Amino acid sequence: MDKPYPPLYYSEYLELDRLLDSQHRKSEEYGDPAHDEMLFIIVHQAYELWFKQVLFEIDSVIALLSEDPVQERHIGVCVSRLQRVIEIQKILIDQLRVLETMTPLDFLDFRDYLFPASGFQSIQFRLVEIRLGLQSDTRLRYNHAAYHSRVSVEHRDALIAAEQETSLFAALEHWLERTPFLESDSFRFWERYRAAVHDMLEHDRSVIEGNPTLSDEEKVQQIHEHARTAEHFDAMFDPAKHAALQQEGQRRLSHRATLAALFISLYRDQPILTMPHRLLASLVDIDELFTTWRYRHALMVHRMIGTKIGTGGSSGYQYLKSTAESHRIFRDLTNLSTFLIPRRVLPTLPEDVRRRLGFVHTTDAP
Ligand code: HEM
Question: Which residues line ligand 1 (CB under 6 A)?
């Protein structure tokens, strides 16, 4: 019997003719071939291919999390896809080492041919940032210009359009806000949790005050930091205080979503919260690895060009180093650790709350 599909040929399937005919050294075109430019091109292309895969995964996770209600089994699918993104990110960080086999002097052999092109113009990199949830008004500016001022009109329009779509941050926030277990007449969880954290903070305060290794000045400083933590904790229970922190840029996630994320983090051992917790942990990993890549890339740039400006016109190393801290997206999730309390003092969940923890179960899974 004939096979239903025609036979496939490896290089045609992968369109290798096109792919492998896409490495053209500018140095060769200008009659001064620089050996290392081939590596420079291939490493960048490999990045772009991985960015494509990362976008593919993130888009699918946004779609699954935007369902209402989210199918319980889909949380597991989201986690697996985010784990894939994490593994790719590790490769993206490692890949810089391959590029670093090119010395700064080798780079100078062809750098002049690249102006004013720059990784700053990578549309897929910008799309990854946007899809994850980086907002344009929180981006660092260089030379007072918008981040899309250096790309073609077509690319700029695509980026502006992407900013209007639901990001992973927004999809996560809506999903968290819909979790059904935050209120219950019989459930005085938040009251009991609040008392437990209050005790923990009092204990921390007395440790600072009684610490013989601290000078009076250091104690004042640490007590000040401690008071700030207590303020953030109060905001957990007061939507107005939470809103004030949002206004200051100290918080981004909505009040309700923050409570839900905290609840999931505290009760991660409940079987039904295991996957939601892994989802949150995956996002913290992605944020952390993205930050690591930014910082690692900044270090490589320092090594390659010192303190020169970039081909795209930024301050180079200084600009890139600053993005590592300020372009974080899921910082609210990382900050939740401040409010975790030991399992031994965690309030026990009443039965009706356990029942209400149920996400939608389906029997039509393949
Ligand atoms: C010799 C190697 C490299 C050097 C010297 C370098 C240098 C720079 C510099 C100076 C910037 C700041 C913008 C500018 O003024 O041009 C930049 C931005 C950027 N580069 Fe690289 N880069 C290198 C390799 C790479 C590679 C392999 C990638 C992978 C795609 C990459 C992706 C990016 C991205 C995405 C940005 C924008 C970052 C942001 O605005 O947050 N770069 N690069």
Answer: 43-44, 47, 99, 107, 118-120, 122, 125, 297, 301, 304-305, 310-314, 316, 319-320, 323
Query: What is the 160 CA–ligand 1 centroid distance (Å)?
Result: 21
Measured from the Cα of 122, ligand 1's closest atom is 35
Q: Mean pLDDT score of the chain, rounded to an integer?
A: 91
Other beta carbons within 10 angstroms of residue 196's beta carbon come to: 16
Q: Which atom belonging to ligand 1 lies closest to the Cα atom of 316?
A: 10
Q: What average pLDDT does range 82-90 have in this prediction?
A: 98
Q: Which atom of ligand 1 is nearest to the CA of 314?
A: 15
7 alpha carbon, distance to own chain's centre: 42
Domain span holding position 70: 23-180+270-329
Local confidence band at 187 (pLDDT 50, 70, 90 cut-offs): low
Give the pLDDT band of residue 365 (cuts 50, 70, 90): very low
In this structure, is residue 249 part of a structural domain? no
DSSP 176-209: HHT-TTS--TT--HHHHHHHHHHHHHHHHHHHHH
Per-residue confidence (pLDDT) for residue 366, from 0 to 100: 40
Which pLDDT belongs to residue 225?
93
Q: Ligand 1 centre from 84 Cα, in Å?
A: 24
- Quick one: pLDDT band at residue 200, thresholds 50, 70, 90? confident
Cα 128 from Cα 21, distance rounded (Å) = 26
Q: How many domains is the chain built from?
A: 1
Q: What CATH number is given to the structural domain containing 142?
A: 1.20.58.480
Q: Is residue 92 part of a domain?
A: yes
Strand partners, 360: 71
| Burial class of residue 69 in the structure, from the number of CB atoms within 10 Å of its CB (0-12 exposed, 13-18 middle, 19+ buried) | exposed
Element (H, E) at 65: helix 37-65
| Of residues 222, 225, 198, 232, the one with CA closest to residue 341 | 198
